[in-house]
Amino acid sequence: MFFSRNRLRRIHCSDPRVQVAYCGSALRPKRLCSSLLLQEKLRYAVSLIFVFFCCGCQSEKPLPTPSTMITGQEKFVATPWHSNTENDKMHSIYSRIGKLDMIGFTPGSGVYSHLKAEMEAMVCNYGINIPPVALKNKNFYRCADTEENRGESLRKAMESGHKILWAVRGGYGSGFIIELLNKLPVPREKKILIGFSDVTSLHLFVTQRWGWKAIHAPVLMHLCRSEFTNGRFDTLLDILEGKINKYSFGPVYPVNHAALRIGTVKGKLTGGNLTSLECSIGTSWEFQADNKIVFVEDIFVSPWQAYRSMHHLKEAGKFLKAKAILFGRFSKGGSQVEFAHYLKKFADSVGIPVFITNEFGHGNSNKPIIYGAEATICGKKIEIKVNN
Q1: Are 229 and 327 in contact (CB under 8 A)?
Q2: Residues 25, 197, 201, 309: which is the catalytic one?
Q3: Residue 197: active-site member
Q4: pLDDT digits (tens, 9 = 90+) for 37-62
Q5: How open is the CA angle 183-166-376, to the nearest 5 degrees?
Q6: Is residue 297 among the annotated active site residues?
Q7: CA 249 to chain centre
Q8: What is the fold, at CATH topology level, of the domain defined by 246-385?
Q9: Which of 109, 280, 297, 341 is catalytic?
Q10: If DSSP codes are grouped into helix, strand and coil, which group holds residue 49?
Q11: Residue-level pLDDT at 195
């Protein structure tokens, strides 16, 4: 019996473990010789055995599949941020942010020119505190301004008296201003720094050198409903407003046998953008992973580049004493099947548990992750404690 293309695709479901099981298998034309047909049957059977072993042995009920992980595609299916059903929610979020003791700053790349007017309207209509200098974009070597001017803007934001410093955008170049920050005395007042992606370098610096709190979460530019769909700010605002002392998200899936066996992992959180983590090696802000759960995401890197960077971090000894690794969303560098293939290859090469989720990074969902917070991965979810 011939295994058609459509039938073979059935096992390419959105569960990342199933993607890992069958990624990279070749799809053959209809007229197959008997030897190739036998190979396809064996490959299909082995894939099903892997799926049933990983999924079925842990729970009697089938695992839920993340709706936003689409096999081999770079598109999302969750409800758009700008849909009519979310307009009231959007206005509520704008209002809540406008009431926070915060100030926006631009450490790396500048705001897209076609979004500047929309952000200025948010400042005007909702009182969101984004200074005009944070909305300028001189496109200086892909950055909003020179290192000196961006560093000076951050220094002024630090001295403004506001409790929360919120990055307007990440992009590129945030790490270049750390050389200037190293020359400053340790601030007496500890702040909260918010952002993700390229802002990872600043997160690592302020948490490890200054003892600040940092939250890996959407940047302010992702409030622009005309372009972005990955701003989900409810949990983040609950944290900033002191409404919750813990939160959780999932599903979180095991990728290697160490994760399948251990069941529960506890540890403090660190990590962020993979490119920034690799760039931190040998610097004053090199990330410290001992006894930590390391979360990782990135954008515009290919699956093999992600594998190479993770392998470099492993060879540099960054995971020798780590508790676990949690992969998030990798976007716009290749299909999710390819990423699953390479991340699985890496996971099998380390002796610590490796998990994967679709709930943070450059995607529809970018749940907040607090640096240094106590976290527990158990039962297909991660629970994070909030130290207000």
Answers
A1: no
A2: 197
A3: yes
A4: 455 545 544 443 443 334 434 433 33
A5: 100
A6: yes
A7: 13
A8: Glucose Oxidase; domain 1 (3.50.30)
A9: 297
A10: helix
A11: 98
